[in-house]
Structures are given as structure tokens and as C-alpha cells.
Amino acid sequence: MPRELPKAYEPGAIEARWADYWKNENLFHAATPPEGDPHNVFSLLLPPPNVTGRLHMGHMLNQTEMDIIIRWHRMLGDLTLWLPGTDHAGIATQMMVERQLRSEGKSRLQLGRDEFVLRVWCWRKQYGGAILEQMKRLGASVDWQREYFTMDENLSRAVREVFVRLYEQGLIYRGKYIVNWCPDCGTAISDLEVKHEEVAGKLFEIRYPVVGSKEFITVATTRPETMLGDTAIAVNAKDERYTHLHGKKVVLPLMNREIPVILDELANPEFGTGAVKVTPAHDPNDFQAGLRHNLPQIDVMDERAHMNANAGPYAGLDRFEARKRVLADLEAQGFLVAVKDYTISLGKCDRSGTVVEPRLSEQWFVKIEPLAKRAIEVVEKEYIRFTPDNYKTVYLNWMYNIHDWCISRQLWWGHRIPAWRCSDCKEVIVARDTPAKCTKCGRAKLEQDTDVLDTWFSSALLPFTTLGWPEATRDLDVFYPTSLLLTGFDILFFWVARMIMMGCWFMMPPEKPMRPEEKPESHEEALRNSVPFREVYIHALVRDAEGEKMSKVKGNVIDPIQVIEKYGTDATRFTLAAMASPGTDVAFNPSRTEGYRNFANKIWNAARFMFMNMDRISVARSPSPAKPGSKGVDGFQPKTLEDRWILSRFNGVADYVGQALEEYRFHEAANRIYDFFWGEFCDWYIELIKPRLTFDHSGEKANAELACNNLVTLFEAALRLLHPVMPFITEEIWHTIYDGKPPFKSIALAAFPLGDPKQIDLEAETHMAILQDLIVSVRNLRAEWKVEPKAKTPIQVFVQNAEIRTLIEENSNAVERLANVESIQFVPVSLAKLPGVRHTARFDVHLVYEQKIDVEAECARLKKELEKYEKNIAGAERQLSNSGFLAKAPAHVVDGLRKQKEENESLRAKSLKKFEELGCK
């Protein structure tokens, strides 16, 4: 039965089929090996997308790069694990379900906590797997048998274990602090979840009457509504302007409450009036000052940022409406001194876009310094390596200045904090399981804390909890530390830093100090092996074709699914890989994807050509499978120059690609594969061997069989080289090569090609480069002289080196066929001065062709061209010699002008040469 592919390459027709096949066959399952297994291990954790998520271009880049790396390691023979899962995404998911409830005229408060949580589980079951289904459609080679959800029971149990251990170690505490409060989400959020933007605002100057005098102290604020909670005015002890007010009191305008004048470094004599209002419940710096002076903490807002009873007559008003009323009353009563324009750094919730309110709230915190210390140490000692390496500095700078981590969230969806309060004695019990009674008073009236943990708390544990921790599992022995984390910069602090802190803390327990008999190096080895991953690769952003960040507001968001449906997954993956240079953002242009769709077509058509010849020549033998670690191309028999050349080039390319992937230079790997497959293999090698694939009688069939076997053998090896980047088309053609009976279930399980120095033939590469240079020179001359494509032309060649002349003579048939040459004549003198000549370091070639043109008309055209180039060059020189222009013009404008001048000079030289060759005047 003949091997064949459909005439047209239709990615949609093959991709879904192979994606289903890979998953149904469990091809990418990493079975836990027994002890003593000799395999190298490569493990990778998928950054878990939110359960609410849909695939975007950032995901597509991230998953493409991960899939390339994991497929490459699998083909190298490593035991590979790519662990997939989704995050429960506390705030995002709760907001999604609450929005759904509102559309039904309901609220979560009406449902109650238990019913609401059940409703979220139902929503997750119905909608929550969309992004993983998209991943399956894209053929991500993850271990689907190990798929997790961060609220799975085993992971929830591990989260409780971590919380309790940290609490027992004194590293989790509960206290009142100023937190970032999102009124829309109704919860505290971390500093990382607050995005600041510079906006035009106002600075309001307000005067406070000094008790017992006619004097006033003037302070300035951007949030006048918070003054209702002021409990002091601070001045600096060194500020002589206020020495006489030390120990005095002022009256708080509008509230008529006396508050003290305190001495504190919070007040800077060099800034403003040197006096500041102190509102301990609504500003983090004021909060600390309040603790130093034992000031009352008066919270004047509720959780929805409406004024509460402490705000007196303003109770019930939204904070911004209260601001207007407060300002109007201050002005009416003569307390508003001035209103000035002022640039404000406004903090907004990254998720809802709501202005964040600093608010006093009782929360749970992680005492972060001990964890951060170890996480800093492992990076400084390079037990974890960052690529690009500048992110090491970014990471360390943040870790040196890290603050305690607020881990509680006022939500219902998430890991509920395992703490219970006794209603009778108020004792707080933190436990792994629900306690039956109070450990202090023995009564059973216990209420669990209503808060849940920050989503990033559970996510920080994933490298070890997904492998069975807190149990001592074989999976932990084999796959931990993971080999690589590949992620984006946006979660470097949210997730990466916290995984390092948690991994280093729990995989090298602090309660296990170094024993006296233990050697320092064994302790150091334990520290080295406590890290959650050996390397962190931070990929770039995917921007639009103009380099702009994608946003819904700009309307420039590119949907990867739409791109895939138009061009195919392989072409989309190849586009991203070809542009993924470390540290450089990807300016994604769908037109590039169209080009790589054409690349896939090229491969497809080359395969059809190969199969046609296999059937015609009756070649039934398929390539023998390469073993992981084996070098070179087995079964390839180089008999001719082009055979020796392509074998040498393939080995060099295989080595280069492997090295590029080792260093995450995806763009270099992809581009080198592209150049080899399209340029060298398809455009040169296949064209060169075509005559060898034809035969007239049985005596020539053996040569044709050899040529065809070499073609198939190398094509199969090239498919394995390409597979990590373009998995679908390579799988389809590879199975067809083996006529549906391949040596492995998938090309993904075959060996990745490794270069063999013994198959590198530099002489063949040099000789072929000379022939290619000659052929391309003739092709370019034909194009310049507008020779009819079907017309054959003689050429003259001047060459001084006898070896090169022999090379050309021995391969004259190839030159004549590929350059459409009628005959080759070697001449004894240089041809450099003749028209229609290409001069190189090794030869001169002259196209013997009498061009039938209207010389007079051509001279007139060339003269007009030269005048245009002269004008452009003169204009550029005039501007570039103008010092005023150079001083004011942007650098890119000046550079562009210089390039424009150089281009015009080059074009002028070409036109002038032709002008002279034609004898124009």
C-alpha cells in the first residue's frame, strides 16, 4: 500500500487527532521509577492558570517554551515530568460566581457560606476546566494523569500542615495592622496586588485651632475624609517653629474633639508646614506613630469604604461623597486654607481597578524574615540560577526589603484558615483537624475563623505538595527539586519568591539543626537540595506588532485561538519560538505566522515528494530507530558531495540546536532549524539528488534506491530535530514514513538527534559553499538582466585555483541544471571589467547574454534614477551637517537619516555601474 499524504496540508485535520492520541495513550505519563533507576530526571511545574482563565498570548508563549523544553528532554532519554494543574483563584473565582448570582437577583449573603461554596464548586465543574481543555487541544505534553487542583483534598491537607507548623514555630501571628483594602472585593490584598499610577489630584491645606489660643496649625492632606479619624498632630522636636506648642492640644475641625500635639520623626521640617495629621487607622506610617505614642485607632470607614458611625454626621456616605461634604463644611467654617494641584500616586486593586483604601484590620501574617534569609542565601550561592541573569538582582533587591506577608483574605472561597476561637474564654486554637473542644477551658463553643488564605499561599507550596508532601514519598525523592521554572516576570514576587521561601523552609526543616557529627558539606548539600527548582527562566512579554502592550482598552489584544484556527498550532508555536530571545519582548505579528505556515507547507510538500519516490522506486525499508544518546545519523551512506555535505550540515545544526535549547535561546534554535530544513535540505539537497532518483533500466535502480534511502533517513532525522517546536506535522509525517508501524508510539518518544564529530566534513561544506555561490551568482545575474526563466544561457568562468576548477567541472551538471546554464566555458583572464559579471574571492562568472533592450530608453531611465539618488543624498548630507538639527533631533531620526543616505549611495553605485556598462552619456 503506497505511503501518501493529502495533497494540501490542513493543520486542523491532523492536530486534533494527534492531541487526542497523545492524551488517550498516556504517552507523557511519568511513572515513578524504583530505587536505583539510572535515568536522568527533568521535572517542570506548569504555572497553574486560574480556574477562571482563558488562553492568551502570554500563556501561549509560556506553554510553547515549556513544551519545547520538555519534549527535547524526553527525546534525550530523560525521565520527564511536566505537572499540570489549575489554581482556585480565590478573589477572581468568587467575583465570577457573585456576578452570576447577581444576574439571578441573588447574593452570596442570601445563600450563606456553605451553599455559596457549593455553588462555586458547581461553577468550577461546569466552566473551570476551559483553559486546560485548550491546552489539551494544543497538544501540551503534560502528565494529565497527575493533574491537580489547588483545592484538592490532599493539597488542602498539606496547606493546613504548613499553616500549623509555621504557627507552632512562631512564624504566623494575628494582629491589627494597616492593610491594602479593596472595597469592591471586600478583602485585604497584598502590596503586590496594588498597581500604582500617577494621576493629577489635589492637596488640601486645613488649619486646626490650638486649644487655649487664637493660633492655628496648618496641615496638608490628599484624603480629607480621613481627618475624621485623626488622633494627633505631629511636629518634629527639632522644628523651632512649634517649640511653644509642645504638649499642647488642638481641636479637630468638624468633630470638635481635642487631640494632642506629639513630637515624632513622622513630621519633616523641610516638607510643607512641617506639621502632619496622624490617622492611625488609615495610614501605615501614622499607624506606627500611633503605636509609638499609644494613640487611639479610630476607623471611620466600613469594609465597603462607606463612612461608619465613628464619622459622626457623615456616617453612611461613600468615601468620595464624604470628601465633598467634608471639604464644603471645612470651607464654610473657615478651616480650609488652600487647594493646590498635586500629582498623586494612586493605588488601585489590580483585579477590580478600585482605588485601594489603607485600612486598619485584624489579619493573619507570616513573619517573613527567617524564610527570606534562607531564600536569599540559596540564590546568592547560585543553588538557583536565573535567566536572564539580571532577574537575580531584581529578586534579591526585593527580598532584602521584604515585609511580613498578610495571608488572610475576607472571602468564602479558598483554603479556610485552620484557627478556631472559643466563644467563652476567647482562646484561639490552631489545629490540623477541627478541635472538639477548647484546649484551655474545655468547652465546645468554638467558631472557625471566617477568613481564607491568600491564593498565593497554597500556590507557593506546589513544588513539593503536588509530589506528596508532607508524606516522604518516592515522587519527592525522584522529582524534587524540579529542574526548571519557566514563567513571566509579573509573578516573580507573587509566586517565584514565595515558592523559594517555602521550599527552602519545609524541605530543609529548621527544627533539624546540623548535628555535631554532621559535616558542613552535607548540611550545605541539604540546603542545595531544598530549593524548589534549579533554574528560573523568565520569558518576555508578548506585545502587538508595533511593540505596544496588549490591552482591551487599546483594542490590540490578539486571541491565540483565532491565530491557531487560521494558521495552525505548529505555525503559531514556531512564530513564538523564532521570536523568543531571552530578555527581549515578542512583537507578535500574524504575518510572521503566515510565513511559518508556508514553512509547514514546504515540509509537507517535500514529504509528498519523498513518498512518491519511495513508492516509485519501491523502497520499503524504513530508518532504524535511533537510540537516545546515539550520535550522528545511522543508515545514511554518503556517496556524493551533496550527501557528504548534507550529513555534515545536519550534524552541525543538531549540535547547535541542542546548545541553543540548553541556554533557552529558542529563537536561535528555531531559526537554525528553519534555515536547514527549508534552505539546505529542501532547496538544495532535494534539488541536487533529483537526477539520482530517476532510472531507465535495472542497472541504475541500485543508485536510485541508495539516494532514496539517504533521503528518507535524513528526512526522518530532521523531523526528530524539528519535533519539539512543531509536534503535529512531524508526528503525521513520521508515522507515514513507517507506514503506520513505527518503532515507538510517537516521535516524541524517539531520540533527539545529536551531532557526531565523525560525520562533520568541512571539506564537503567548503566545496558545496563554492558551488552554491556560483549557482546563486548566476541566478542573480539572470534576474538583473531579466533573462526569460526558461531560456538557458552560457556562462564564462575565470578561476585561478585548479582544485576549484576541478570541483566545478565535476559538478557541472548540477550547476547547469540549478542555474539554468547552457554551457560552462573556463577562460584564462579575469572577467571583472565585463558587464554581467559577478566577482568573488574564488572566481569570476560572466553571463553570456545579449540583452534585448532599448538602450536609449534604459539610459534615460538610469539617468533619472541617478538624479533622484543624488538629490536624496544631498538632502541627507545637508541635514546631517546642520549642528542645530543634530542637537534637537531624536537619536532614532538621525540614525534613520544616516541609513537612508547609505542606502541611496549603494543604489546610486549600482545604477552608475549599469549606466557605464551600457555606454550611456
Give short descriptive properties of this protein.
16% strand, 921 residues, 4-stranded mixed beta sheet, 44% helix, 4-stranded antiparallel beta sheet, alpha/beta, 29 helices
Structure, explained:
It is a single chain. By secondary structure, the protein is an alpha/beta fold. It is built from 29 helices and 29 strands. The strands form 10 sheets. Strands 6-5-14-16 form a 4-stranded antiparallel beta sheet. A 4-stranded mixed beta sheet has the order 10-11-9-12, covered by helices on one side. It has a 4-stranded mixed beta sheet with strand order 27-26-29-28, covered by helices on one side. A hairpin with a 6-residue loop joins strand 7 and strand 8.
